Amino acid sequence: MNLQEISSRIGKSSDVVVREFTNQSLNSLSMAFIYIDGLVNSETLNRGVLQPLMENITSESDSISAAQAISLIQDQMLPVGGVKECLTIENMLGLLFEGYTLILLDGISTGLAADTSGWEKRSINEPTSQGVIRGPKEGFTESLRTGTSMLRRRLKTPDLRIEQYKIGQRTQTGVALIYIQGLASEQVLTEIRRRLDSINTDGILGSNYIEEFIQDGGLTPFPTIQNTERPDAMAGGILEGQVGIIVDGTPFALLAPSTFFSFFQSSEDYYQRFDISSFLRLIRYSAFFVSMLLPALYIAVTTFHQEMLPTTMLISVASQREGVPLPAMAEALLMEITFDVLREAGVRMPRTIGPAISIVGALVLGQAAVQAGLVSAAMVIIVSFTAISNFVIPSLAIANSIRLIRFVMMLIAGSLGLFGIMSFLIVLLIHTAGLRSFGVPYLSPVAPMTPRYLKDVFIRVPLWNMAIRPKNNLGKETRRQAPNQKPQPVEINKKPQGDDPS
Q: CA geometry: angle at 169 spanning 166 and 172, to 5°?
């Protein structure tokens, strides 16, 4: 009966294999196997399921019932890692699509599912979007279980918890919620679980689906959840009390709650000396403001506030713009849109020719536009340096947000000048101060100000000086290491007093 129901539910698909037979050793019970070709490991299927059940051995009784046969098969006859008992058709179908092999017996509604999953998957490679010079070179893959194992390998603690969800009515995508018991806030965990349970959609095909369903902020250009391709970055966030989310089918995992300043931290900050890391982090913050404000400031100064420029620079800029037919705002918008088109073309084109096309296109178009008198040379420099500064930001999510804000800033600068820029910055600051990430203030620990937690925000102090783990407003302050671990210098070759070298 179960076999007919399952066959009617999944239809006549070429990859669904159904095999019926009779086992003489189990009182001639009629049995059936169902599995999906491509989702199972052939060797595990043959040696762990087919061969033990199809050989005429085992039973000592000729009057064994179907219920006894189920127990006998589950407890003694299947040498595979996991065997589950299925009571409903929905449970059987769910396990079937995960690579399990269903075992059905005639005359009994209960079925068994043997874990024979083993589909093809990508090997572990270096992350493509978050590379480091000094640090681990492995990144997440599309396999959920591979991702959790990479975290288990780094966090060898019994307090690590992994909770699994099935989200998507048609895709039944596996989602893992990962945290350390005692470090993660219970209030944050409760809220994340509630939001995951409330997702009701046909399919989840990537981590961005989960991010959009559970993130705070509403209509805001700023991301409130981090995404990372690096297991070490996710392990570091979990050790700080964050909660990780891994989605099956995508190499990008999520970290929440997140603050504005966490998007400027790179894994490499903790793999080199603190003074170098602090210098590079300050460069990232500077690049953030340059990427957001430089074109707008150029438009405002050249359009409304020429008196702010030194005389020599004013003459140079005026001479360059003498033959340009467009106003500064239209000129900047044209160049920014052109650069974004080139960047998208470089991403979408084949990998072998994409970078060459984008670089050559930018050089040729920029030089030709200047020679044709459509744009000034100064504008090409401004747009180029702005684009380079945007690439300095380690998080692609916050970098894309700045791209959108930059266009708004340019339009305001062309209309209201520096007054409009400052007014928009105030509005932006008020907006970010009001954002929350699962209840945590987006600008913490700067607003609200907590000086003792500023050791890893704008700069990074030495690791031995960060004994206290920064707490969020919903968690508790915890100690990450013993205090006073600063190394003390010693003189190894110091000679004893009174020792006469002669």
A: 35
- Residue 80: partners with Cβ closer than 8 Å, 6 or more residues away: 44, 48, 49, 114, 115, 116
Torsion (CA) 471, 473, 474, 478 in degrees, nearest 10: 20
Interstrand relation of 468-469 and 478-479 (parallel, antiparallel or unpaired): antiparallel
**Which residue pairs from 99-103 have beta carbons closer than 8 angstroms and sit at least 24 positions apart in sequence?**
99/36, 99/39, 99/40, 99/41, 100/35, 101/33, 101/34, 101/35, 101/40, 101/45, 101/49, 102/6, 102/32, 102/33, 102/34, 102/35, 103/31, 103/32, 103/33, 103/49, 103/53, 103/73
- Which tens digits make up the pLDDT trace of 208-235? 999 999 998 678 889 999 999 999 999 9
Cα distance between residue 54 and residue 392, in whole Å: 62
How many residues can be counted in the chain?
502
Token digits of residue 100: 């399990």
Q: Residue 174: helix, strand or coil by DSSP?
A: strand
Tens-digit pLDDT profile for residues 13-35: 888 888 887 766 666 677 888 88
Residues paired with 199 in a beta bridge? none
Q: Which two tokens mark 365?
A: 């178009």
